[in-house]
Each structure stands twice: as C-alpha cells, then as structure tokens.
Amino acid sequence: MTERPTLLVLRALGLGDLLTGVPALRALRRHHPGHELVLAAPARLAPALAATGTADRLLATDAPGREVPHRLPWDGPPPDLAVDLHGNGPASRDALARLRPARLIAYADAGAPRWRDDEHERERWCRLLRHHGIGADAGDLLIARPAVPSPAPGAVLIHPGADAAARQWPLGHRVVVTAGRGERALAEGVACEAGLPSGDVLGGATDLPFPLLAALVAEARAVVCGDTGIAHLATALGTPSVTLFGPVSPVLWGPPAVPRHLALWRHHGEETRPGDAHGPRPDPRLLRIRPADVLAALAELSLPPPVPLPGCGAPVRPT
C-alpha cells in the first residue's frame, strides 16, 4: 500500500493561535485532500485540534512560551510540503527546512509576500497561502459545537485571566468564572468581590479539559474575557462575547465584525501594537476599561433570553 504524502504545518503556540489558524489549516486541507496533514504544536492542544477537524494528527512539540521548538521530533521521510504558520523569521522557517521538505511555504522564504505588522492574524496566513495559489477564506473559522453538555448552560462566562478582570456582573443571571492553569487565586478573587460561591469557579489547578471548556463556552449566554484563547473559542463556536483588549488592538487579533461579538479597546490614537502583549503587568489601555463599559457592551449584544436564578425575580438587564 502506498503511503500518503505528508503536509507538515508548524504552529506551536496556544489555543487562541490554533483557532486563528483554522481558516489557513482548512484551506490546506481542501487544497491537498490526499495528503496526511500533521500539525506541529504542543501536546495539550490535541483535543482542541481534533475539535477543529483540520488535521489528521498532532506532532507534539516542546518549547517555552512562544518560542520556536528547538527541534521538531519528525522521524519519517521528508514531508511533501511544509508550511510555516508560526512566525516570519528564520527560526521557524529553518526548523522546517531542516526536514528537507519537497516544498516549503513561509514568510521568511524567498519569493514570499511582504509581512504586514498591521494585518489581522487570520488574514495574515490566508494571504500567504493565496500567494501560493491556495484559496483561503479568513472567515472560515467556525467549529462544531461539542457533544459534551455544559455544567452551566445559559450562564454568563467570565474568564479573568490574561491580565483582564471584570469586577461587576449582570444581575439576575448565573455567572461562572473560569480559570486556566495557575489562575485559581485570580478567579477566586474575582468571584469573591462579585459575591459568587466558590463552586462557580471552574479550573485553576490545571486547565479545564478542552471538551468541558468548549461545552461551557458553547452553551454560555455570553463570554466576557481578555484577548486570550477563550475569546477565540467563543468566536469559533459563535457564542456572543465581549473581549477586552489592551496591549494589542483588535485590528490584529479581534473577533469578526458581526453583532454577536464586541471588542473593547480604549486607546488614545496609538498604533495597533502599543504595548507588550506578554508583559508582567496589566496594560494601561486595558485598565481604561471600566465595569460599566463591560455591562454596556453586554447590553448591546443580541443575547438569548436570560435564565433566572432560583429564588430571583425577573432578570434585570444592565443599562
């Protein structure tokens, strides 16, 4: 039996990066239906990758932060095609070139289109593929809703990680606070100030399993969070969302311009990337967003009817 040719894609980053790469991955899948599509990414993203349906398997990588993996653990023959969706420098390009693929697509390669610092992340990679004759639509980003039921259907989901915190909540609705690995104290602090029971804080010691996280987001009445993976998951599942932006403009990483998603960006005429997205302190632009701004944004969304809490009267909409 003849082995299928292999298409290896490098995007060894986080959940949000994976989800913004879905349109490009789908384009590669459509253009090369006979290839085995392999994504080089951290092992923890395997369940999320499976949910997107964009690859046949994950090649587990290991690198700190957002660095390029020092070595790709590839032990097969040279890939038929390698695609760098990780960055625009020689480090990621060379990591793939060392595998001697028959063909390589990368921004850092000769003949590639010009890298644009002010381009949205989804469009950036689709444009690279279109330059090479591969049709790609940056709007092709939705994923299937999970089969797992949510433990909090209809709740407003707050994810205060990624240097963003909301300290006032819509009244009359159940609110659930989610936490990524190492964020339990932050989430419990937010819940405490909001008067929420500790049982409404989910995760923190470890990341929530992706199927459970996806179910929470898919069945949420709305998601409120910073510019992090949960925001992109809400976009991918079509859940109404309010995303708080700070160091980086939504022009680069924001949701599609549709009524169910709102981006809050309190800038004073700055450039699209005025701050350090990975800095140790909350960005000043993020701190300009007040709880009243978040409540006003929630009021603007086209939300399904709220679910009253047991013992509460009619739900109260923020005004």
TrEMBL record:
GO biological process, one term: lipopolysaccharide core region biosynthetic process
Organism domain of life: Bacteria
GO molecular function, one term: ADP-heptose-lipopolysaccharide heptosyltransferase activity
Pfam family, one: Glyco_transf_9
GO cellular component: cytosol
Alphabetical keyword list: Glycosyltransferase, Transferase
InterPro entries: Glyco_trans_9 (IPR002201), LPS_LOS_Heptosyltrfase (IPR051199)
KW Glycosyltransferase (keyword) present: yes
Protein name: Glycosyl transferase
